[in-house]
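Q: Hi! First time asking for a complex rather than a single chain. Here are the components, and I think there are two in total. Is that enough to go on?
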Amino acid sequence: MEQSFKLLVAAIVAASLLSVIMMVLWKPLPEFDLTNTEVTSTDVYPDKGSVGTVFSIRAEVASYPEEGVRKCEQPKEVRAVIGGEKAVLIDNGLQGDEKENDCVFGGTWNSELSSGGKKQVFIEVGDYSGKIKRKRVGNVSLTETKCITVSNGKINIVFIGSNYSDPGQIVDDARIHSMYLFNVQPFKDYEDEIKITALNTSMDLDCGKKQGVSEGIHLIQCDDTLISRLGARCGADEIVVLLNSTKMIGSAIPHAYVSRIYPEILVHELGHSFGKEKINLGDQYSYGISSDQGRIEGLPNCDVEGCPKWDQVKGTSCVKVDKFGLPGCTYTDWYSPKKFDAEGGVSVMEGIEAREKRVLSPPFEKVGFDPVSEQYLKKVLEEYK
Amino acid sequence: MKLKTFLILMFFIAGAFGKVYVMEMTVDKEFVGITALDGKAPEEPESGLKASVRSSEGTVLGSKNFQVPSEKFLDDFSRNESIGGVIKLTNTTFGVVIPFFEEGTELVVYDNNGENLFSKDLSRFTEQEEEKKSEEEVEKFQWWWIGFAVIVVVLLFFLIWLSKSREHENL
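A: Yes, that's all I need. Here is the structure of the assembled complex.
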């Protein structure tokens, strides 16, 4: 009986001791009233991407106990729910949420394990009794992408289709466009060094055509950041955007953009964009304005009178008039390295001689670069190697 | 010199297929946003703006030059004469692909003259932060263990006392 009493006392002492430890360590739950709490502003970046993109989410969660009074209280949890997946948001100034305890909660959601589609985004705020307040704040578009290798090499040109109804079509289109490219020097000599990749995606690249500076000219303006993200997924050195359009149009910088049925235009646009520098080859037709009125400071394939840039290059001259009979090479006071040759399709930077088509199919129009442009592109290709 | 070689080597390794940041900027050089994804950064031009990734200690883990595509070539070949030109872009954004560094906590962008344009926090993309979050979770979890331990200890002593008292009763 005495032993039992001792054990009971020991139990009471041990429990008391642990209770004291608990009391010392225990902190009362913060006061938090969910009823006055509002999710006032949110930001999800980016709003569209491919599976695997890390999305940043920010939400301002504050309490409004009285009119005009805003308090930054600490809910038990603030989280984003994107397509059923959860991401914890924290207000510590390290989650892209600027400052600590400023009512702005931030966090990231890695879409790596998610499937494609339009996902609803909710912000959930939880209190300490388990109650949750939920607010729908928008959507994100997630697309499953697949980088399909068309041909192997080191220098990776990635073809991305815009507004393709059948995303698989891009593989066939990339194959035909690359066949065409590899018929043109200097790309022909570097066929084994160039990798062609087609990005299988149905994502809308927002390539809505806007009206350009002159009447009737279409400016192809896509979502270039989205294109860069998609290109990076496939390890792009260069990106070609194929537009699901039958118009004979193209554009360049920062990527090459071209109607999917005109590989001739692709060669021209790649001349502008191919290379590490922002602007590479220039147009060898005249814009009708002089260089002091223009924006471009120098081009490898246009030069001032006398053409000192290529006076050592064989097969060149210093041509004043473009193929349309106008003076100039980009600008009226600049000169081209070669007179246009329709038979040889030289030079494609002077403009193409394509006929209107309805479908992408061989035979193709003949195009080529002049010796100066060819030499420049060869240098770029060597740098990539 | 050795450090420089090391940094170049590190940057080369980071440039291989792995993870990258993709920063969005306006052509007026204003920051829009940044994300991270699996991918590869293309090679850089010789000149232009510079994006540097720094660690929490301020060490430059890697830098990348890039140029602002503020002009666009446009070509319309549908007529007998080529119509096109170069236009200056406004209200447009573009993406810069930058190699990813696990220790990267800050992105600093410099203009052509080397002046700081802006810097942005990258902590949310680092593994360290994820670890920190899980540590916090572990900390919360330990509270439950203390409470659970108290109950177990009391129950244990009670059972021992119960069995002992029964033994005494049997005797």
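A: Chain A touches chain B through 85 residues (CB under 8 Å). Let me know if you'd like any chain examined more closely.
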